[in-house]
Automatic annotation (TrEMBL):
This is N-acetylneuraminate (7)9-O-acetyltransferase. It catalyses: a ganglioside GD3 (d18:1(4E)) + acetyl-CoA = a ganglioside Ac-O-7-GD3(d18:1(4E)) + CoA; CMP-N-acetyl-beta-neuraminate + acetyl-CoA = CMP-N-acetyl-9-O-acetyl-beta-neuraminate + CoA; CMP-N-acetyl-beta-neuraminate + acetyl-CoA = CMP-N-acetyl-7-O-acetyl-beta-neuraminate + CoA. One of its GO terms (cellular component) is Golgi membrane. Belongs to the PC-esterase family. CASD1 subfamily. GO terms for biological process: carbohydrate metabolic process. Keywords: Acyltransferase, Glycoprotein, Golgi apparatus, Membrane, Transferase, Transmembrane, Transmembrane helix. The keyword Amino-acid biosynthesis does not apply. It comes from the Eukaryota.
Amino acid sequence: FKGGDTCEYLLSSGRFLGEKVWQPHSCMMHKYKNSEAKNCLIDKHVVFIGDSRIRQLFYSFIKLINPQVKEEGIKHGNIPFEDKSASIKVDFLWYPEVNGSMRQRIKSWAEGSVAKPHIIVVGAATWSIKIHNGSNEALAQYKINITSIAPLLEKLAISSDVYWVLQDPVYEDMLSESRKMITNEKIDAYNEAAVRILNSSSRNSKAKVKVFSVSKLIAQETIMKSADGLHLPESSRDTNAMILMNVYCNKIMKPIDGSCCQPQPPLTLIQKIAFCFFTLSIFGYLIISLIHRNNYRKNKSCTDLESGEEKKPAISTPNVSTLEMLLHCFCKLGLIMTYFYLCDRANLFMKENKFYTHSSFFIPIVYILVLGVFYTENTKETKVLNREQTDEWKGWMQLVILIYHISGASTFLPVYMHIRVLVAAYLFQTGYGHFSYFWIKGDFGVYRVCQVLFRLNFLVVVLCIVMDRPYQFYYFVPLVTVWFMIIYATLAVWPQIVQKKANGSCLWHFGLLLKLICLLTCIYFLSYSQGAFEKIFSFWPLSKCFELNGNVYEWWFRWKLDRYVVFHGMLFAFIYLALQKHQMISEGKGDPLFSNRVSNVLLFISIVSFLTYSIWASSCKNKTECNELHPSVSVVQILAFILIRNIPGYVRSVYSSFFAWFGKISLELFICQYHIWLAADTKGILVLIPGYPMFNVLVSTFIFVCVAHEISQITNDLAQIVVPKDNSTLLKRLLCIAGFFSGLHFFSAMQDQPRH
């Protein structure tokens, strides 16, 4: 840990990921769009002073504001640029040498009455080398001139951002005869002089000229692609312009995926209260543990010195009390949340941008597949979608999704479309699992609802408090929660139709189908009526849960993307349970699901359907168009997979315990990855061990999986305490929870007032 000044790293160090993606050391660089650049630079004046290389940087910079700009200005003259819509002025001033003329211009800003520019970018040296044929006298004069300019630049740096651009290396073999005297040895000497002289007299940290040395590193990798050996290729100067934009704009715009130059966000009131709560829990648990340990020692059996017999304690060791268990859970949770905060809110650990390559996605996929097959065991039961099989399904899907996120594979459309099917498959299981439970058990009690809601939402609520993020930010949990409530409402509303009642008369089956048709109609209407959907979720208090960036559009988009798949899961459960009830399928160990002929035909159709969907997804050209079709066709691959996995008896009778283990903590893995495996709210990668990417992934993954497993256990333990089976006690707990959320809303309103 070398301190939190990521600006210094951004300006001085980094490496290329692939050919064109620049990765600064220790932090993430945001790719600014034109609208963002304009918002940042509104009412600003930017000046570039120097030679043809600075002119290149000037053009790349103004193209971030207006991509239509053409490089048509006078080569050896001043070039103005203005964006009147945002009142932005960017000027290039032709001063190819560090001399008296340049000093006079800088002095007019530093000491005169002329308005000072907000950003000043200066750099020159190659002309001095060229004109004076690389003489030592020219270098000596350069040192004298820069010494006279340095105090003026430092004075300007108090109120403006001043950058001195070091000279890039040249590709000597490509230089024309008139430039042969510009050697890398000479350039290094000029750069060394500039670095030594600048800031040498400045004692005030605010009055420092920022040395833009990263351009040298970029040029070392790309100068061989130069057209003349002197000027950088376009992609390299665009990278330099983007770095310059990040240095200035990140602290203003605060982009999530731009951690460079961003100060650590201040603690909110709710975060401070949470910190105090967890601290008290830790101390409370330690005190109770010490008291119990002392009591245990006092009552511990001891040897009677006279008789030599062991005496039994009068009081047996007490069981762990509810209070101690509660404090123990919050103690562990407090330590875990501290790690979350340090990873993704404090500027303690490094963060890097993602970079996708096919090998970074597919090699880990093959690796976990081999591991999954290696840990194969027999299932306890051989029913379709038995518990072990669904855990296995959740497990391998979650691992694939994790690899998809850390590798940045969302940029590759075929992979994106297949991952969308995996997310849909999770929701399919939600429909299948909850429908099956309510249909078979007929349990619509409050206890069941509260247990499910607590297990789904506990971690997310804690993270919303600790990480200062809205509920909708963790979009998958709100999605699963709402669908659970829809399933519950559909089946619990009068008339309640369950399997026991339906066995008496077939008419009840038609009644249930009618309910499902009504549900499908509502889904269809809301998916094509954005206005109606937004009105429903814009009412308080729903708006507090489902708004993101001031509106519910993101929630509508997420809900719409997989709108039919939960219904498909419910329908599949109904058909499967009906077939099972009428003994139309065989679920014995090793037996095919249907007769051999029917099984073979269905298996062939399933394989063809599975491959057909994959071919269609791989041929997708446009994400928007494919997303429109996805809700209707994703069920094809899901059903095909279920049939392939369950029709052959020998396949249905085994499962991967490796995948099933991960499946049991799949929800925690999905949520925890946001902050302690990925970084910057999933936009980047957490770096615990810089310089060793593979070792870093191994260490961070190990911690991440252990934390997810621990949180799963904490959630289960707390669910037993917070959601008791006794109805009167449960009612009291619900009132306490309502009070908690009321207090949370009150403190949220208090901390939002200063922000507004």
